[in-house]
Amino acid sequence: MSDNFEILKYICRMKILCVGRNYSEHAKELKNEVPTEPVLFMKPDSSVLRKGEPFFHPDFSQNIHYETELVFRINKIGKHIQSKYASTYFSEFTVGIDFTARDLQDRQKSKGLPWEIAKAFDQSTVLGDFIPVGEFDLSNVSFHLLKNGQMVQKGNSSNMIFPIDKVIEYSSKFFTLKIGDLIFTGTPEGVGKIEIGDHLEGFLEDTKVFDLWIR
Ligand code: ZN
Fold first, then answer.
1. What distance in angstroms lies between residue 72's CA and the mean position of ligand 1's atoms?
2. Partners of 90 in the β-ladder
């Protein structure tokens, strides 16, 4: 009985699904091909930076990049979800950062190895405050990142190669989506390096959803 409970506790943790190369200008800036199907990878729940904490720059990387992305939270369990029903599987979204150790990722990619150490490390997932999807037109949502007060990344969902409904359809062929799962929908162009002392602020339209220091 208690063993089952332990397993249940374990399997009830959420997962973080991420889409790579979902904006063609970003695929080009990293010299990647524009994909014909979503490129998916996952980050564990242990990668989430706790709200209010600074990001402590790890010493295993000399080139950590911010990737500013729209993030959707799944509110219903589902598998083989058709895109026309996908919008019933989430009701809130925000802007987050998919921190990436670009030097490690480049090394892993060049050897054809998995990316986890470059993408899924502790504190690599930043989440803004979630906002009800409500009346937003999800095909035209803008978001941006300020670094030390200057806009360094700006995106609009209209430039996604695979919109959220398509991402849900594709990913749920492989993975059961569960309540609390998060989907990072990919970064637009403009990714860049962070330094200790940087101040990052993320905006969904004009609403500031996170405020973060690099230490
Ligand atoms: Zn990303």
1. 13
2. 74
Ion ligand 1 residues within 5 Å by Cβ: 67, 98, 187
| Per-residue model confidence as pLDDT tens digits over 70-93 | 999 999 999 999 999 999 999 999
Number of H helices and E strands in the chain, helices first, is: 5, 14
Read off φ and ψ for residue 206, nearest 5 degrees: -100, 5
- Contact predicate 172/209, CB 8 Å: no
Residue 84's SS3 state is helix
Per-residue pLDDT tens over the stretch 5-61: 565 555 568 999 999 989 988 878 888 888 889 999 999 999 999 999 999 999 999
pLDDT at position 28: 81
CATH of domain 2-213: 3.90.850.10
Burial 14-41 (b: 16+ CB within 10 A, else e): bbbbbbbbbbbebbeebeeeeeeebbeb
Other residues' Cβ atoms within 10 Å of the Cβ of residue 93: 26
Residue 208 pLDDT > 60: yes
- What spacing in Å lies between the alpha carbon of 8 and ligand 1's midpoint? 29
For the chain, which residues make up each domain, given as ranges? 2-213
